[in-house]
Amino acid sequence: MAVRKPRKKAKPIKRTTGKGGNYRPTSQGAGMTKKGVRAYRKKNPGSKLKTAVTGKVKRGSKAAKRRKSYCARSLGQLKKSSAKTRNNPNSRIRQARRRWKC
Length: 102
Fold this sequence. Notes:
Layout: H1 34-43, H2 62-80, H3 83-87, H4 92-99
């Protein structure tokens, strides 16, 4: 007779939005929350992850350069996505770009 191993309990599904989530829903502009960035940096010491640049910035400042860099990278992501995603104003990438003011 073969001995059966006891079944492992299924891990709960990790939620990225909602209570305890680390990402904003698309209705709030997508992207990570401050809490999410803190959690990520705690798990990954030495990380330089920051939240979105959403306010008004001076030309040539570090924040303005970060925004310009993100906008350039995310445009590439947008172009590589499917036509359905690309043309949907409520897709995560479009909402995130809007939040960053790209």
